[in-house]
Amino acid sequence: MNIAKKYYEIINLFCRLVSIINFYVFQRPLWKFSYTGNGNNFQCKGRLYGCKIYIDGHNNDLTIENKVVLFNTEITITGNNNKVLIGENTCIYENGRIRVQDEGNMVRLGRGVRIIGAFISSADKYTVIDIDDSTLISSNVIIRSSDSHSIIDSQGKRINNGDNVFIGKNVWIGNGATILKGTTIGDNSVVGTQSLISGKKFPDNTVIVGNPAKIVKEGICWCDQRI
Predict the structure, then answer these.
(1) 3-state helix/strand/coil string of the chain
(2) Low-confidence ranges of the chain (pLDDT < 50)
């Protein structure tokens, strides 16, 4: 039994090494790959093309589910007890970036999310960016759960702590929009191009436009088809 177990471990290690060489040296798709070290866990069931993955710290978790396709995407996790979960059928195109830093932060992408060149950053402590199923995020979008730097008042107290960001199902976020900490966007909503949302909560089925953003239309939904 011990010999068989040792043989399996050697074969598994060899397969991992081949996958890593293909990915980093020959830039071939990384597919069905797993890694565990220092309490960090990386599970990939999707396909990665020209991507960069960097994990540093302890007890971090990166999970990429079935039928995920990532093109030229950069995922960086530094610190401890952080999580990134990318759900089934999600696609990220054109130099998308996900960055999770510090302690206990999380980015979750639901099923069928489509992202074109956005930057998503969950930093600080115990903040969450949750993007639900079938949401479409256009290019040059920024989504952040913190300012990444501290603002200190006259008593030496920090006054700009991070906060969660929740984006509902089937939301369409237009080109160049910025979504900052404390924001909630309801299901089936549309965020206009170049809009800025910071710390506001919007209900389902709304069009949200402007800087600062506000509701300009209610009772709407959107779909991919040009009817």
Answers:
(1) CHHHHHHHHHHHHHHHHHHHHHHHCCCCCEEEEEEEECCEEEEEEEEEECCEEEEEEECCEEEECCCCEEECCEEEEEEECCEEEECCCCEEECCCEEEECCECCEEEECCCCEEECCEEEECCECCEEEECCCCEECCCCEEECCCCCCCECCCCCECCCCCCEEECCCCEECCCCEEECCCEECCCCEECCCCEEECCEECCCEEEEECCEEEEEECCCCCCCCC
(2) 1, 26-27
Looking only at Cα atoms, what is the longest distance across the chain?
Answer: 68
The pTM (predicted TM-score) of the whole model is: 0.84
Q: Answer yes or no: are the C-beta atoms of 42 and 20 closer than 8 Å.
A: no
pLDDT digits (tens, 9 = 90+) for 144-174: 999 888 888 888 888 888 899 999 999 999 9
- pLDDT given for residue 27 in this prediction: 46
Which residues are within 8 A (CB) of 149 and not within 5 positions of it... i.e. 6 or more apart? Answer: none
- The strand pair at 172-173 and 190-191 is best described as parallel
Identify the residue whose tokens are 């060489």. 21
CA angle, corner 16, sides to 14 and 18, nearest 5?
70
The token pair that represents 88 in the structure block: 């089934």
String of b and e for 37-72 (b: at least 16 CB within 10 Å)?
A: eeebbbebbbbbbebebebebeebbbbbbeebbbbb
- Convert the pLDDT of each residue in 176-208 to its tens digit: 999 999 999 999 999 999 999 999 999 999 999
